[in-house]
Design a protein that fits this description.
The chain has 13 helices and 12 strands. With about 375 residues, it is α/β, with parallel strands linked by helices. Among the domains are: about 70 residues, no CATH class; about 110 residues, no CATH class. Strands 6-7-8-3-9-10-12-11 form an 8-stranded mixed sheet, with helices on both faces. The protein has a 4-stranded antiparallel sheet with strand order 2-1-4-5, covered by helices on one side. β7, α8 and β8 form a beta-alpha-beta unit. α4 crosses α5, α5 crosses α7 and α7 runs parallel beside α8. It starts with a strand and ends in a 10-residue tail after the last helix. The structure holds iron/sulfur cluster (SF4). The site of iron/sulfur cluster (SF4) has 14 residues, from loops.
Length: about 375
């Protein structure tokens, strides 16, 4: 059952330097109990997208729809939104120290979250629920640690406490924004395991925002790859990893360690993400794309179905059959490029080839 359906969401911010087009017509849906991974480099619009759903982008020009459980989040008043945040949609941020107040005990902060949404819950009941939640997320000796301050918790424990807080009101949807980026690999794996286990236990939907395809591989059911404020590829986790179509997705796969891409060494994606004020013409990825063709310079590719399964969509002019990482697919790409590369795009391709590898961006 669809829990959240976002249609043609656009968010821009007027600034002294021009209009920042942070999100440009993004559509997606999330079903109850499923996980959507949203992947992209910094500045791809993934955080603005989800903050907009929670009414956390004041000053932004917003259009589109975000139907959550039958109601449009984008037209709610601040009072209506306050009832949604935490109770229906919870957020886990990258750095728990910026979310946990340093002067209040961890348990007290969870209790306040519970009591802010239901004043009938007594302090004693709220404490019992806080201990139970800390137990559930694996905090040892929870009945004592409930009285600790955030600085007495390790980084992994603070992130667990944030997850406990997110779960405290049994939300239908959790948005986790780079929740494991600040943690070492072992703790990251534990936190992802925990999120998966609790998601199944509570049948919660999860949106996982990350720049790390390794995290997506661990946890996502569906994946949306974002670039310059747009969705450039959407597919099941399997198709993203084994049948990618968009050159940006391919670049992401080749720039992470232990990817399935057939490559001897990591290959950074040439160049850097574009300014969201002055976007490149045509396909916004063209100044970095080794497959750039003439039409890419001035036509904007739509997100269309590729391959045989309609659920796999990509915004790229390469043939729809050019999916995957093998040699045959590479031949299809090269053939398409040779047919539609003339002086203008050849010049762009030369610049990309001549760019120093060290100036590229590796996502790992
Ligand atoms: Fe590359 Fe052109 Fe596809 Fe854009 S549309 S990703 S520039 S091949």
């Amino acid at each position: 059952m669809t829990l959240l359906e976002v249609k043609d969401l656009a968010v821009s911010f007027p600034t002294a330097d021009g209009v920042v087009k942070a999100v440009r017509g993004v559509s997606f849906s999330v079903d109850a109990g499923r996980t959507l991974g949203i992947v992209g480099e910094s500045g791809s619009g993934k955080t603005v997208l989800t903050q907009t759903l929670l009414g956390l982008t004041p000053g932004g020009d917003i259009s589109g729809q975000a139907i959550f459980d039958g109601a449009n989040l984008l037209t709610m008043t601040e009072d209506q939104m306050r009832n949604i945040r935490g109770a229906q949609i919870a957020v886990i941020f990258q750095d728990p120290l910026t979310s946990l107040h340093p002067l209040y005990k961890v348990g007290w902060q969870i209790e306040e979250m519970i009591r802010a949404h239901d004043r009938k819950v007594s302090r004693k009941e709220a404490t019992e629920r806080a201990i139970d939640l800390l137990n559930k997320v694996g905090i040892p000796q929870a009945s004592q640690r409930v009285n600790d301050y955030p600085h007495q918790f390790s980084g992994g424990m603070r992130q667990r406490a944030m997850i406990a807080m997110a779960l405290s009101l049994s939300p239908k949807l959790i948005i986790a924004d780079e929740p494991t980026t600040a943690l070492d690999a072992t703790v990251q794996a534990q936190i992802l395991d925990l999120l998966l286990r609790l998601q199944h236990e509570f049948d919660t939907a999860l949106i996982m925002i990350t720049h790390d395809l390794g995290v997506v591989a661990d946890i996502a059911d569906e994946v949306m790859v974002m670039y310059a404020g747009r969705a450039v590829e959407k597919a099941s986790k399997h198709d993203i990893f084994y049948q990618p179509h968009h050159p940006y997705t391919k670049g992401l796969l080749e720039s992470i360690p232990n990817s399935s891409a057939v490559t001897d060494r990591l290959k950074p994606i040439s160049g850097q993400p574009p300014s969201l004020i002055r976007l490149p013409s045509g396909c916004a990825f063209h100044p970095r794309c080794t497959y750039v063709m003439d039409r890419c310079l001035d036509e904007v590719p739509e997100l269309v179905a590729v391959g045989s399964a309609g659920a796999h969509r990509s915004a790229c002019f390469l043939p729809v059959s050019a999916i995957g990482l093998g040699g045959d697919t590479e031949e299809l790409r090269k053939k398409a490029v040779s047919e539609d590369r003339h002086a203008a795009s050849a010049e762009v391709a030369e610049k990309i080839a001549a760019a120093p590898e060290s100036e590229g961006s590796a996502i790992a």
